[in-house]
Amino acid sequence: MKKIIFTIPLILISHFLPAQDLNGIWYGNLEVQPEKFMLFIFHISQENGITTTEIEIPSQQAKGLKVQGTSYEKGKLSIDASNFGFKYAGVLNLESNEIEGRFLEGIHSVPLNLSTKEINEIRKKRPQEPVKPFPYTALDVKFPNPKDGIVLAGTLTLPDKVSKKFPAVILITGSGPQNRDEEMFGHKPFLVLADYLTRNGIAVLRYDDRGTAESTGNFSTATSADFAQDALSAIEYLKSRNDIDFKNIGIIGHSEGGSIAPLIASHSKEVAHIVMLAGSGISGRDLADLQAKAENGFRPEAIEDVEAYIEFNLKVLKIASSKKSIPQKKKVLEHLYKSVESNLKAMVAEDVNVNDIIQQQINTVLSPWSQYFYSYNPADELRKLKIPVLSLFGTNDLQVDPVVNQKAIEKALTKAGNNSFTSREFTGLNHFFQESNTGKISEYSGIEQTISPIILEEINKWIHDNIK
């Protein structure tokens, strides 16, 4: 395997330099793609010999992210944010008053220097994002999930029309911690979708995932079933309002949200219809297998022996999704990863601890979310549904195979005897339903369009056609 060579090494500082106060706000631009940056803001506090860190990522509307641990000794800063999937290691340069270090995520090690000089995020042009004042009412709302003892925060938009009660939809985000706008890659697809539907007479509730932005709870320990429970709590909230037609409450889910939409509907008689946007129709294990085999840029560029890489990942998935206990799985996985330790060392920079990478990878596949994901199959829930279902895909979707999954969705609904479903594929649209050239993840942020107008029109028309 080809070794990755980084041209900007860490600048080492003598252990004999005096201690430096790191209290304050540190800014750094992480190059996530060539010439594409994501601003990270580190709030570091030192008190009574203890150093703590909270992280802010403006582009993700993420604030107050408390990391697992922070240490600062003899000029070296180490931030363990494994609960968010990464670590940071840096060294303080007293002359420039900068922390020169690296952002560590899996086998990837990327330079990230921090400075106390404020950096303002530069947002790209997003012509579809609505601008205030809106021709409708937008309310900041909070509602409880009493089962899990958390509170979800979101936005409810109500049409500015003469009506006692409005049909409504609840938007469910894709995988990973998302805010109410499902903000990713500099886009806010749920803001655009909510705006369009509300202008067309449909009330829309969108909310921050648990443990994200203004919602309470713990995202890192949650499963798709927990997210479904959050959505069921959202339904109860809408039912409590006198301006919502509770006979016409629908669910619109994107990606993972689309996959759990059938689960939500099968557990609530209040769901009138569901819209699956790039939602899976096969088990998480089968979906993961397809992604492991896909030739679409998911794998690291440093991989030379692609077949060996795929074979290894399929072995990991087989073990992680087996019926063995978690301790048993962990033991087998550690042995498997140990067998490729030398290959991993050849792929990463010298400052990266391979054992840390191995443990991070194992913890990821054995996490509560992953364990539930492997066993959950949306088709099992689809076979229970007789309500209207709309399933949409783009032909350039490289994350959730449109052909395999659409076929599985149609098969399950047909077996249910459901005569009220519509499935469509749109040429050239990617996983986020943008008009695209290749569908690769690297394209998402560079496309000005947030959602194709064709999709917005399709969803709106279909919902109006299915209002009772």
Annotate the secondary structure layout.
Blueprint: E1 24-33, E2 36-47, E3 50-57, E4 62-66, E5 69-73, E6 76-81, E7 86-93, E8 98-105, E9 108-115, E10 136-145, E11 150-159, E12 166-172, H1 189-199, E13 203-207, H2 224-239, E14 244-254, H3 256-266, E15 271-277, H4 284-293, H5 306-320, H6 326-338, H7 341-347, H8 354-365, H9 368-375, H10 378-382, E16 389-394, H11 402-415, E17 421-426, H12 453-465
Parallel strand pairs: 12-13, 12-14, 14-15, 15-16, 16-17
Antiparallel strand pairs: 1-2, 2-3, 3-4, 5-6, 6-7, 7-8, 8-9, 10-11, 11-13
Helix pairs in contact: 2-3, 4-5, 4-9, 6-8
**Order of strands in the sheet with the most strands?**
10-11-13-12-14-15-16-17
* Class computed from helices, strands and strand pairing: alpha/beta
Portion in helices: 25-40%
The poorly predicted ranges are: 1-19
Mean pLDDT: 88
Largest sheet: 8 strands, mixed
* Portion in strands: 25-35%
Distance between the termini: 59 Å
Count the helices. How many? 12
* Dominant shape: globular
| Rg, nearest Å | 23 Å
Instruction: Write down the secondary-structure element order.
Output: EEEEEEEEEEEEHEHEHEHHHHHHHEHEH
Tell me the total number of β-strands: 17
Description:
The chain contains twelve helices and 17 strands. The chain is of the alpha/beta class. The protein has an eight-stranded mixed beta sheet with strand order 10-11-13-12-14-15-16-17, with helices on both faces. Strands 5-6-7-8-9 form a five-stranded antiparallel beta sheet, with no helix packed on it. Strands 1-2-3-4 form a four-stranded antiparallel beta sheet, with no helix packed on it. A hairpin with a 2-residue loop joins strand 1 and strand 2. The longest helix has 16 residues, at 224-239.
